[in-house]
Amino acid sequence: MSQLNQIELQNLRHLIGAHETANQKLQAYAEQATDPELKQFFQDGAQAAMNTKQQLLGFLN
């Protein structure tokens, strides 16, 4: 794989940060949810955001 240029690296960092933020927010929403279906919805979203963040981090290796 070729090296990332500065713009690509900045964009990647931005995307990683955005997915981390989404994960944290969705986890917080899941903790506050009382409806089991809604709680599961937020937990699934948080996990998806974390999975995407991990995939994006893979581009830094």
UniProtKB/TrEMBL annotation:
InterPro entries: Ferritin-like. This is Coat F domain-containing protein. It comes from Desulfosporosinus youngiae DSM 17734. The lineage of its organism: Bacteria, Bacillati, Bacillota, Clostridia, Eubacteriales.
